[in-house]
Amino acid sequence: MKRILSITFILVIMIAPVMAQGELAEQPRIFYRNEKSLAIMLNSNGFGMNGRYAKRINARRKTIYDLDLASIKHRKEVKITNFFNNKSFVFGKQNSFFTLRGGYGKQVEMFRKVDKGGISIRRFFSAGPSIGFLKPVYYEFLNMNGQYDGTRKFNTTANHQMIFGKASFFKGFDEISVVPGIYGRLGFMFEYSRNDLALHALEAGISCDLFMKEIPIMATEKNEFYFFGFFVSYRFGKIVDARGIVNENDLVY
After folding, report:
1. Across the chain, what does the average pLDDT equal?
2. What average pLDDT does the segment 159-167 reach?
3. What angle do CA 6, 81, 141 make, to 5 degrees?
């Protein structure tokens, strides 16, 4: 997964400036534009969703406010399949881990979209506090006779052949514990919407999450208190508080 995201990031950085070079066609531009958007994120260590409000500072700069909900996986999680029922599970997984992030940052437009078929290239960063949620993982076990033997948490003496599968995701919700932390994110946005009142974009970059203690995701591997990763995301939204439409040549930067 890391290799795929790294290659995707490099390709987007190399290709996007070329794609942005289209036939120039001056069109009226919205000068005052704040943005509300949602994003679906795929990370090298999980996946999640993001909500963002971007408030204009000037023609090229915005202040951004982010809110994320994302899963974080251990880098050595490997799914195996039960021979008897083809159910898959991660052997040795002790807890599922999710994080709720609230961030503040800046966005700068590096290359402006000057025609409807072009691409606007922006760089951005955000950082802020986060709250991690640890939820125990329960497994369905079989006894030596192959009969159902109830649900239990993983322990290091468990035989993977005796695990029938993972129990319901909702089992263990009453045992959730909280771990505070902080995060930071740095990336590039490639906005390609043909409608100046809409937002459609691809993003790619790197992120880091730091927590107050080691996060016990796996019982069979060393756990860490930090998580580095690559991310790609698809962002969609709309322009709000548009207060003036001017020609491209009239913009003051």
Report:
1. 83
2. 76
3. 130
